[in-house]
Amino acid sequence: MGLPEILAHICCAPDASYVVELLQNDHRVTGFFYNPNIWPGDEYDLRLAETKKVGRLLGFDVVEGEYDQDLWLKLTDRFKEEPEKGRRCDICYAVRLDRTARKALELGLPAFTTIMSISPWKKADVLNRIGRLTGWKYNLQFLESDFKKKGGFHKSIEISRRYGLYRQNYCGCVYSRRDHK
Fold first, then answer.
1. For 44-85, how does the pLDDT look when each residue is reduced to its tens digit (9 = 90+)?
2. Domain that holds residue 35
3. Whole-prediction pTM value?
4. 13-23 and 152-163 are packed helices; what angle lies between their axes, rounded to 10 degrees?
5. Strand pairing partners for 62?
6. Which residues of 14-46 are buried (b: 16+ CB within 10 A; e: fewer)?
7. Residue 51 and residue 115 in contact, taking contact as beta carbons nearer than 8 Å
8. Domain count across the chain
9. Is the CB of residue 172 less than 8 Å from the CB of residue 37?
């Protein structure tokens, strides 16, 4: 019997470079690039290409979700003035985790997770709470994590440099780009 399968939501290649390698110790990983929050479209394309590069380097498949920026903007517009880590981010997490769970069901995978908890800008406790609820909703196992612990974020920086990956300087959404200029 092989390793248990898991669908890992991937927000960007640098974060995936460390987390997927870690997950592969105990799972057969399929990556899911679903990020309707990323703006502009050129940034989305670059992050997707880099994620596929990491998939080739680490030997895992990457599945692309739909890029529906209009839906994301509609869902988060009410909170566009909130700072990073505010309620807008919670909605963004929920949108992406829900779609990841539905993709896991579609692919027949019993479990899902997200690599987002590696970022110091992401709230692992909120991601895990949303993931648990989403897993319960779809009768799937959610792998809870805080991948930034034990130096995970710094390890992702080192691995990114080793692979020559593009490392962005903002979360991805139009609002985080505005706030980091």
1. 999 999 999 999 999 999 999 999 999 999 999 999 888 888
2. 5-179
3. 0.96
4. 110
5. 31
6. bbbbbbbbbbbeebebbbbbbbbbbbeeebbee
7. no
8. 1
9. yes
